[in-house]
Each structure stands twice: as structure tokens, then as C-alpha cells.
Amino acid sequence: MKKKLLFLGPPGAGKGTQANLYCKKYGLDHLSTGELLRQEVNSGSILGIQAAEIMNKGELVSDQLVLSIVEGRLSGIKKGWLLDGFPRNITQANSLEKLLERINQPLEAVISIKISDEYLIKRLLARGREDDNKEVITNRLKIYREQTAPLIDLYTNQRILEGIDGNANIDVVFSCIEKALG
Ligand code: AP5
Q: Which of 84, 136, 175, 179 could form a cystine bridge with 58, CB 3.0-4.6 A?
């Protein structure tokens, strides 16, 4: 079974939902940079206050900050991991590659969840997180297209990427992911 995974996709594609289900079922550590950043924000630390300002605009926080968060956590995991929301641009992807080489844990599979803009906007507006309003969703999508979507080509060329239709209901999407990773 593949145990070093990455879930890619635009905001609202269902990365977090599917990663949670997959990690529970298969005993992997779920590493969501968005979730870790929100914990930092909720702690009220200076770093959290600075991150909140960026996140609430739908921009990306600094590569250095997310890399230090991921590096600290990944090194200690023995049973396998699933990255959700990281890497988000080519710089982060290159840093991740170097880090994984160093700890001798190469990435085994990437799941790219695809979803229509119409569905994702509906889902995010219904959820109503602080960064789930029309203006910020539009910016998150723009940044996804400009900075994160190029990673699809990167991992396709490495022959480790599987595309999944994320428009279906949660159980159906989960079955497709299990099949792709099975
Ligand atoms: P992050 O938390 O990663 O946000 P995101 O990528 O915009 O993703 P979402 O959490 O909105 O969507 P998701 O695909 O996980 O979908 P979910 O399962 O939640 O990042 C937030 C911010 O942090 C970024 O904007 C940035 O500022 C910063 N950040 C994070 N990582 C960073 C990095 N590496 N570098 C720099 N900055 C970083 O589902 C969404 C909703 O849809 C839920 O309500 C869910 O219940 C529902 N849903 C899910 N699947 C289905 C389905 N199949 N059918 C119906 N409803 C569904």
C-alpha cells in the first residue's frame, strides 16, 4: 500500500474531507498546512496574527513558514503520511523534494481532485469559514490556477499523479481514491 501521499486540488475540492477519511481508514498521519496554520491563528501567537491577515485575503503565507511547519512534522512520522495543501507552488515542491530525499521517504502518489467552479463556490459559501466569501474565494482560485495547478504537470511527468472527479458525493469520491491508490 502506498503510504506517502499528496492530495492536490482547488479550494473546496474536498482535499481535507477525503484526506481525513483516508488517514483514519489506513492509519496515516494527515498533514494539512491550512489546518496547522489555523491552529497557529487560534493560539493568538504573533505568527498566527500575521498568518491570519494573509489567509483572510486568500493569499499564500511565506514558503519559509510552511516549510518549517512541514519539516518539523514529517521527519518524525514512521507510519506514513498524507500531505494536504502543501506544496502549493513550484518553490514549495522543490523544497519538499529535497526534504524527502534527505529523510529517504519519496512521494509515492499524488491524487489530483478536480471540481467545477460552480460546485466549489457553492460548497465554500455553505461552509462559511472566515476565508469563504465570494471575493476571497475568487482570489484563492486565481492563486490556485497561477501557482498550484502547474504542479499537476510536474507530478504527471513523474508518473505518480492520478486525477479524480471531485464533483460526486463524498463516498463516491472516496471509493475512486481508494481504487486509484489500491
Ligand atoms: P487550506 O485550508 O489548505 O484551504 P484550501 O486549499 O482553500 O482548501 P479548503 O479547505 O477550502 O478545501 P478542501 O479542498 O480541503 O475541501 P474540504 O474538504 O475542506 O488553506 C487555507 C489558507 O491557508 C490558504 O488560502 C493560504 O493562505 C494558507 N495556506 C495553506 N497551506 C499553505 C501553503 N502550503 N503555502 C502557503 N499558504 C498556505 O471541503 C470543503 C467543503 O465542501 C466542506 O464543507 C465539506 O464538507 C464539503 N465537501 C467536501 N467534499 C464534498 C462532496 N464530495 N460533496 C459535497 N460536499 C463536500
A: 136
